[in-house]
């Protein structure tokens, strides 16, 4: 046994920091919020750093230390405080919230590869929405194959991608400030005064806070790997603190550097999708390097997003099934290969990712799809982050029951209030974030995005309430449904989704009402078919 322990391969805290870094922040995250808020985002990042990022990371550190033997991360934390069912539902909602994130990461790889090979955004004009969707779907298949065939691929990609992205970001910020001095202090953002950085805390501002939260959350996604650290109770918090420092540098100085090259008052419409490339091209031209920096960044981004996709596909699926009891999770989803890979969980992940891609296929162009997916992340992801603060509050309410070597804020009452404050802010940002961004308010596209936002949330979260019922049928009858029942229900669901998406893309005045009625009828018929006792022929 001692020999086995000695031979075990541990994940060091710097490696875990880089694994968390690729799931938390990147130059693109800065770009997204720069387009939403302009130079005022610098103040937002400072506020987020001290009032959100650091407390958030340290709370995760304490929770990771307490529940260091759980395999499901966040679901383990909630299960440890509130029991089996809430632990299961936490695992499901967290997994469901990761679906748009996975699709967005796969989309970014397509964008990255296009720039890496062509050095231009023009290739995007030659790709239809359907081709973009198919290429994204292909990314899932490729990375599932990689993770199945190549051991430690996730750690390798994370180390390379995370380190390269941090280096490129530091290089960009350094060159941006050198370029600012070289140009005599000239900035594209004019006028630039202290007032330029002061946000107007109106309703529009608060609808973009969800995207800020989405940009900095995700550190808890690496919690399932805490058991693979040599000293998890001390090394995990250390990794989270290092993550916060890296995040601070990237967000604050990165945002200012963007203002040097982009006019914050008049930004390109495709800044979220292509802004990182525009800025590296501008830096390269300023320093006489041509397109060299652009190509280097493009390949860096390929590895970075590949690492992110690898971590997400593996970690989110393991989080769903590895620490979820058989009382609520259907048996077929808990099936693993001889190598321990949750193959059916991967299939479900890819299937729901395809569903999300289908919702966006009727948007006008590739840029609209890209922006919509980002905004969908800004709704779902912060909503699920609420579980972290809820779990922290439960722990600090009865701290004697949950001892930990690492404690964030020794006073339990103050710690509880800190968790409550972050819970309220995150919940409000989630609700306000459902309003579509980057499109004209109350236009046809605005209404369509609002409809598919609601459909996506209902389907992704609602499916989690159905699975325990399927598991009960497995226990009672041996199988959940007969082959005939599966065929009828799947046909109804797929047909209903396609019809609802089609109606959402029309200009019918009462399309919202038609979608609601049709969806209710489809669900009612599914319920009638599914409640019957399964009888195999």
UniProtKB/TrEMBL annotation:
Report the GO terms under cellular component.
plasma membrane
The alphabetized UniProt keywords are: Cell membrane, Membrane, Transmembrane, Transmembrane helix, Transport
What Pfam families does the record point to? AA_permease_2
Keyword Cell cycle listed? The answer is no
Q: Which residues cross the membrane?
A: 12-32, 44-67, 127-146, 158-181, 205-227, 239-262, 294-313, 343-363, 369-393, 414-434, 446-466, 486-505, 511-530
Q: Where does the source fall among the domains of life?
A: Bacteria
Q: Single GO molecular-function term?
A: transmembrane transporter activity
Where, subcellularly, is it found? Cell membrane
Q: Which Gene3D superfamilies match?
A: Amino acid/polyamine transporter I
Membrane topology is: Multi-pass membrane protein
Q: What is its main location?
A: membrane
State what protein this is by name: Amino acid permease
Q: Which organism is it from?
A: Lactobacillus jensenii
């Amino acid at each position: 046994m001692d020999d086995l322990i000695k031979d075990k391969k541990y994940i060091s805290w710097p490696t875990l920091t880089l694994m968390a870094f690729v799931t938390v922040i990147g130059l693109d995250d800065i770009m997204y919020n720069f387009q939403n808020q302009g130079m005022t985002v610098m103040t937002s990042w400072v506020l987020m750093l001290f009032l959100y990022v650091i407390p958030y990371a340290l709370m995760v550190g304490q929770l990771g230390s307490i529940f260091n033997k759980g395999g499901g991360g966040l679901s383990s934390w909630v299960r440890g405080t509130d029991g089996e069912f809430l632990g299961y539902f936490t695992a499901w909602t967290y997994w469901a919230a990761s679906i748009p994130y996975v699709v967005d990461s796969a989309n970014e790889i397509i964008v990255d590869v296009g720039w890496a090979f062509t050095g231009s955004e023009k290739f995007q004009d030659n790709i239809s929405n359907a081709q973009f969707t198919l290429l994204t779907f292909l990314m899932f298949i490729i990375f599932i194959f990689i993770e199945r065939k190549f051991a430690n691929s996730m750690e390798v990609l994370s180390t390379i991608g995370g380190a390269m992205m941090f280096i490129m970001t530091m290089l960009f910020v350094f060159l941006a400030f050198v370029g600012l001095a070289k140009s005599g202090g000239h900035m594209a953002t004019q006028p630039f005064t202290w007032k330029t950085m002061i946000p107007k805390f109106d309703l529009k501002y608060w609808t973009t806070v969800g995207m800020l939260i989405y940009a900095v959350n995700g550190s808890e996604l690496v919690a399932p790997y805490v058991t693979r650290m040599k000293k998890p109770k001390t090394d995990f918090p250390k990794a989270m603190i290092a993550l916060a420092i890296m995040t601070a540098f990237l967000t604050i100085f990165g945002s200012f550097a963007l203002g040097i090259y982009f006019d914050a008052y008049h930004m390109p419409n495709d800044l979220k999708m292509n802004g990182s490339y525009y800025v590296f091209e501008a830096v390269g031209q300023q320093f006489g390097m041509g397109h060299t920096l652009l190509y280097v960044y493009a390949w860096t981004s390929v590895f970075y997003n590949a690492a992110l996709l690898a971590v997400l596909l593996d970690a989110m699926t393991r989080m769903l099934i590895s620490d979820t009891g058989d009382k609520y999770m259907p048996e077929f989803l808990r099936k693993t290969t001889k190598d321990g890979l949750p193959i059916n969980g991967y299939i479900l992940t890819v299937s729901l990712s395809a569903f999300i891609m289908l919702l966006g296929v009727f948007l006008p162009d590739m840029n609209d799809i890209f922006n919509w997916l980002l905004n969908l992340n800004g709704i779902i992801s912060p909503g699920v982050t609420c579980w972290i603060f809820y779990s922290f509050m439960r722990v600090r309410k009865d701290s004697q029951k949950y001892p930990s070597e690492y404690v964030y804020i020794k006073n339990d009452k103050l710690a509880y209030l800190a968790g409550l404050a972050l819970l309220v802010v995150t919940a409000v940002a989630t609700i306000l974030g459902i309003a579509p961004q980057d499109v004209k308010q109350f236009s046809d596209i605005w209404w369509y995005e609002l409809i598919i936002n609601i459909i996506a949330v209902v389907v992704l979260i609602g499916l989690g309430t159905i699975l325990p019922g399927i598991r009960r049928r497995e226990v009672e009858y041996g199988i959940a449904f007969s082959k005939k029942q599966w065929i009828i229900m799947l046909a109804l669901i797929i047909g209903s989704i396609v019809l609802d998406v089609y109606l959402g893309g029309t200009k019918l005045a009462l399309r919202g009402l038609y979608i609601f009625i049709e969806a209710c009828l489809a669900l009612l018929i599914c319920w009638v078919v599914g409640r019957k006792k399964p009888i195999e022929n």
